[in-house]
Design brief:
- This is Subtilisin-like protease SBT5.3.
- GO terms for molecular function: serine-type endopeptidase activity.
- InterPro entries: PA_dom_sf, PA_domain, Peptidase_S8/S53_dom, Peptidase_S8/S53_dom_sf, Peptidase_S8_Ser-AS, Peptidase_S8_subtilisin-rel, Peptidases_S8_3, S8pro/Inhibitor_I9.
- Keywords: Glycoprotein, Hydrolase, Protease, Serine protease, Signal.
- The protein is an alpha/beta fold.
- The protein folds into four domains: 85 residues, Alpha-Beta Plaits; 382 residues, Peptidase S8/S53 domain (Rossmann fold, 3-Layer(aba) Sandwich); 149 residues, Glucose Oxidase, domain 1; 96 residues, Immunoglobulin-like, CATH 2.60.40.
- Helix content is 22%, strand content 26%.
- It is built from 19 helices and 41 strands.
- A hairpin with a 5-residue loop joins strand 22 and strand 23.
- The protein starts with 9 loop residues before the first strand and ends with a strand.
Length: 776
């Protein structure tokens, strides 16, 4: 018998807004909230007892709501209740270094300058960093993550006693639990949403905050890992590993589990992690995960982030790895700090030499390469074959099944071992993961792999710990290699040894995978907000798995090389920890503004940043630009925001007043007239520019008491921008001044889709820059 679709049971989240019992609820208060959830659901399903069986989470501390297994009709009926903000499916999300801090100028060639934000903030001492992921207390970072506690990055050597403010704990329900110390002061796990989605029981391996895939340890150590000398990956990238706030305390909140249908982090668990972390006392929350953007009240990340910000916590999230497609950016609410990924000035380089007697270099400059099985000698390097026979420097013959597309993608079962054995295999990027291609090449008997970019990936080259000797080349070079193969009867090649190079130019450039704007939910909010290093980042790793995260990979490494917006996000989290230590009176919005308005849009050749195809990048790629921590500690002016400002923004978007009151947990009245353009955001995005638009903004002086700022604008062709007043004079620190930006367009420019400009306030020392995006 077929079950009606409406009767199929699924896990939902019933969101009721904010808690109203205060910041230090008693057990009686918490029990009362839980009982109210049973009563509310019981009124729809027959009784409180039946509701108890359906509810798998009750959010009782900061977020008010519950997770429950419901059918479609029950969910629809509950959504109509006047005390319910929203009801939405328990959706799954995806998980989105030794050199990067030097590139960001916190240190210079291993020496920390006196003007470094590290020294000025005492390395973020006693900041507690938490991670929501796979694993004097002024500032607490919370990263939704899991952790490998044995890593030296989480050593508590030199750390004093845990500050009294900390209210968190370590879950040790099994022998595989996490043992905390004075550095790693919290480790908790949340799996009921995952369990509800699966519809079955979980064994003891799911009862730990321990990191089994490496992602959580990598991100947590990037944000707040301790100093570890001699960190490297298979001997490459050697240096001292450290997080952005190396003096911080760290805490892990595990909300991600083995993927199910491509999903691994479920909203119900994410919201439970937020609720716990807020109560534990965190001040900065770093979240390297996300999914498709959705309405703010139907998104567990957006809801959790709002409640965190409402409690004074900075929330940093990854933009996503779905680039370079336009409109692919996730985590798009204005209270979220959304970070894209860009390169740094370090590369792991090698050459591919083509031909027999004549040597043909496929590029004019070195390219990325990462080999873990290459044998070195004092005279001649060798390549290691799977049969344990060594191939000399004499060229290894190519093979490339380019006539069938699935074969050139090197997908499972597509490679003929008779043709691939003993040869270097050329694989085109796409279809399956980069390292999966190397595995397929190895299984087919190849002795090496050349991974060639597809056109969207352009020049983006990523270093990976492959199963076999391998190198990664760009799209143009890949075409040249294929042309050489097609034109040669016996094509041959040699992959040179890998070397680490620094001070590479140009850098930074945007990563091809970094998700792009515009913001598809609310185009008037520019996303991403900024970018940070996220390509080839070295950081701590879990030693319960290999660097390829494949069961057949038996290698174990304390540090690994990873790329993604997951890696760029904790860079900014670490910077925020430093800023909170230096400026404990600054709001989350002020810190966000300081980082955004001091970011750079030019590379180390002083030319505009490029994307992976060597085209000029735009604010849809990098937001305000790549972060500059030393500039952010003294921005001059900031664009500040309060909870009320965000609520007014929601009113302007059409949310009803009753819902917003529940969302905030406070009495609130929407203004009689409001516009989404009224939000005092550090960037300006004008949607559907037609005629004249006026944007009102307010800046606060956080620099010298007596200062004068003059406005400068850069306008695209066909657009006129004026600022009134164009001069702002401040008499004291903390003083605020309001101004208007008037934007006028000609009818001639409406044939183009987007255009970009900027507003700059300068007093001669401070340059407060805001990107302006025009959408027609």
């Amino acid at each position: 018998m077929q079950i009606p679709t409406s009767a199929i049971k699924q896990s939902y989240i019933v969101y009721l807004g904010a808690q109203t019992h205060g910041i230090n609820p008693t057990s009686v208060d918490l029990d009362a909230v839980t009982n109210s959830h049973y009563e509310l659901l019981g009124s729809f399903v027959g009784s409180s007892e039946m509701a108890r069986e359906k509810i798998f989470y009750s959010y009782t501390r900061n977020i008010n709501g519950f997770g429950a297994v419901l059918d479609e009709k029950e969910a629809a009926d509950i959504a109509k209740h006047p005390k319910v903000v929203s009801v939405f499916l328990n959706r799954g999300r995806k998980l989105h270094t030794t050199r990067s801090w030097d590139f960001l100028r916190l240190e210079r060639d291993g020496v920390i300058p006196t003007d470094s934000l590290w020294k000025r903030s005492s390395f973020g001492a006693d900041v507690v960093i938490g991670n929501l992921d796979t694993g004097k207390l002024y500032h607490t970072f919370m990263l939704l993550t899991c952790v490998w506690p044995e890593s030296k990055s989480f050593s508590d050597e030199g750390m004093e006693q845990i500050p009294l403010k900390w209210r968190g704990s370590c879950h040790r329900d099994t022998d595989d639990g996490v043992v905390c110390n004075r550095k790693l002061i919290g480790a908790r796990y949340f799996n009921k949403g995952y369990k509800a989605y699966l519809g079955g029981k979980l064994n003891d391996t799911f009862k730990t905050a321990r990191d089994t895939v490496g992602h959580g340890s990598h991100t947590l150590s990037t944000a707040g890992g301790n100093f570890v000398a001699g960190a490297n990956v298979f001997g490459y990238g050697n240096g001292t590993a450290k997080g952005g706030s190396p003096g911080a305390r760290v805490a892990a909140y595990k909300v991600c589990w083995p993927p199910v249908n491509g999903q691994e982090c479920f909203d119900a668990d994410i919201m439970a992690g937020f609720d716990a972390a807020i109560s534990d006392g965190v001040d900065v929350l770093s979240v390297s995960l996300g999914g498709d953007p959705s309405e703010f009240f139907e998104d567990g990340l957006s809801i959790g982030a709002f409640h965190a910000v409402m409690n004074g916590i900075s929330v940093v999230l990854s933009a996503g790895n779905s680039g370079p497609s336009p409109g692919s950016v996730s985590n798009i609410a204005p209270w979220m700090f959304t970070i894209g990924a860009s390169t740094l000035d370090r590369e792991f380089v090698s050459y591919v030499e083509l031909g027999n007697s004549k040597q043909i270099k496929v590029r004019k400059r070195p390219m990325h390469q990462w080999k873990t099985r290459m044998i070195r000698s004092h005279s001649t390097p060798y390549l290691y074959s799977t049969s344990s026979n060594f191939c000399s420097r004499n060229h290894i013959r190519f093979t490339c099944m380019h006539h069938v597309y699935c074969r050139i993608l090197c997908q499972p079962g597509s490679i003929d071992p008779r043709k691939a054995k003993g040869k270097i295999l050329v694989c085109l990027r796409g279809g399956i993961g980069r390292m999966d291609k190397g595995k397929q090449a190895l299984l087919a008997g190849a002795v090496g792999m050349i991974l060639a970019n597809d056109e969207p990936s352009g020049n983006q080259l990523i270093a990976d710990a492959h199963f076999l000797p391998a190198t990664h080349i760009n799209y143009t070079d890949g075409r040249n290699v294929l042309e050489y193969i097609n034109s040669s009867k016996n094509p041959t090649a040699y992959i040179t040894p890998v070397e680490t190079e620094t001070s590479i130019k140009p850098a930074p450039s945007m990563a091809s995978f970094s998700s792009r704007g515009p913001n598809m939910i609310e185009p008037s909010i520019l996303k991403p907000d900024a970018t940070a290093p996220g390509v080839n980042i070295i950081a701590a790793f879990s030693e319960s798995t290999g660097p390829i995260e494949d069961e057949s990979d038996k290698r174990r490494v304390p540090f690994a090389l990873q790329s993604g917006t997951s890696m760029s996000c904790p860079h900014v989290s670490g910077i925020i920890g430093l800023l909170k230590s230096l400026h404990p009176d600054w709001s989350a919005a002020a810190i966000k503004s300081a980082i955004m308005t001091t970011a750079r849009t030019r590379d180390n050749t002083k030319k505009p940043m490029l994307d992976s195809n060597n085209k000029k990048a735009t604010p849809f790629d990098y937001g305000s630009g790549q972060v500059r921590p030393n500039r952010a500690m003294d921005p001059g002016l900031v664009y500040d925001l309060t909870t009320e400002d965000y609520l007014n923004f929601l009113c302007a978007r059409g949310y009803n007043q009753t819902t917003i009151r529940l969302f905030s947990g406070k009495p609130f009245v929407c203004p009689k007239s409001s516009s989404v353009m009224d939000l005092n955001y550090p960037s300006i995005a004008v949607h559907e520019l037609n005629g004249t638009v006026t944007v009102s903004s307010t800046v606060k002086n956080v620099g010298p008491a007596r200062s004068t700022y003059k406005a400068r604008v850069r306008s695209p062709a066909g657009v006129m921008i004026s600022v009134n007043p164009s001069i702002l004079e401040f008499e004291k620190n903390g003083e605020e001044k309001r101004f208007e930006v008037k934007i006028e367009s000609n009818s001639d420019v409406q044939s183009q889709e987007y255009a970009f400009g900027e507003l700059l306030w300068s007093d001669g020392k401070h340059n407060v820059r805001s990107p302006i995006v025009f959408m027609y």
